Amino acid sequence: MKKNPFIGTIVFGVFLVLAGILILSNQSIFVKIIVIIAGVYSLTTGFYTLFNIGAWQFSKNTKVLAIIKSVFSIILGIVAIVAPLTFAEVYMGTIQILIGIILCFEAVVAIENAIMCKKIDKKIDISSFAWEALIDVVLAFIFFMNPDKALPAVVTVIGVAGIVLGAVCLIWGIITAVKFKKLSDDIEKEL
Predict the structure, then answer these.
(1) Distant-in-sequence contacts of 32-35, Cβ < 8 A, 24+ apart
(2) Distances from the Cα of 183 to the Cαs of 6, 64, 151, 173, in angstroms?
(3) 43, part of any domain
(4) What share of the chain is helix, strand, coil (3-state, %, to 5)?
(5) Within its chain, how far is the Cα of 72 from the centroid?
(6) What pTM value is reported for the model?
(7) Chain-centre distance for alpha carbon 123
(8) pLDDT value at position 16?
(9) How confident is the model over 130-155, as pLDDT tens digits?
(10) Which of 79, 104, 114, 123 is least surrounded by CB atoms within 10 angstroms?
(11) For the CA atoms of the chain, what is the radius of gyration?
(12) What domain count does the chain have?
């Protein structure tokens, strides 16, 4: 009898469901974790842009905007990493407003990049820049409208998504594992 390859899907589904439940039951901890992860990402992209800007073939204005964006990203990254570990909940609303401001600036830079790409070559697909700008503006709007509830809402969405995706993986894994076992048994009987 062959080992069932769908057992991994079942285990992954159980893991996602448990992770989703854990996230929903400990939201304040996961808000801090998300802020720290976003801080590490922001710090990394800021330094990457700053150290690689010389290799880009954009206009001087675009490079200046990219440098300003990278400095903002580095500052935000440092604040986002340090704040949840030290300042606790007091400054989280302020951090979220700063995130919103930087997201708006990133949307402007994405639009500027799209314009520059079109000037270089009319055939360049700028949809990724448009999506980046749109997502940045939507997220900034969420952070500005209700900074105290924005990150907990994101954590809730992640937790619920984990439970739903885990349940789907679990159900699909069980159904396919049963079908695989039945097929394997039928093949063994014929041999």
Answers:
(1) 32/84, 32/85, 33/84, 34/151, 34/154, 34/155, 34/158, 35/80, 35/83, 35/84, 35/92, 35/95, 35/151
(2) 13, 63, 47, 15
(3) yes
(4) 85, 0, 15
(5) 19
(6) 0.63
(7) 29
(8) 92
(9) 888 888 888 888 778 876 777 788 88
(10) 123
(11) 23
(12) 1
CB 170 within 8 A of CB 10: yes
Residue 38: half-sphere exposure toward Cβ, Cα within 13 Å: 21
Residue 12 maps to a domain: no
Instruction: Say if 14 falls within a structural domain.
Output: no
- CA 59 to centroid of chain Cα atoms: 29
The region of weakest confidence among 31-45, 76-90, 117-131 is 76-90
Cα 71 to Cα 17: distance, rounded to the nearest angstrom? 39
Q: CA-CA distance, 21 to 164, in Å (whole number)?
A: 11
The token pair that represents 122 in the structure block: 């009319």
Contact 69, 95 (CB under 8 A): no
**Host domain of residue 40:** 25-156
pLDDT, position 166: 93
- As given in the structure block, the two tokens for residue 99 are 């995130």
Structural domain includes residue 136:
yes
- Tell me how far apart the alpha carbons of residues 87 and 74 are, in angstroms, rounded to a whole number: 19
Residue type, 150: A
Distance of CA 120 to the CA centre of its chain: 30
* 3-state secondary structure (DSSP) of residue 18: helix
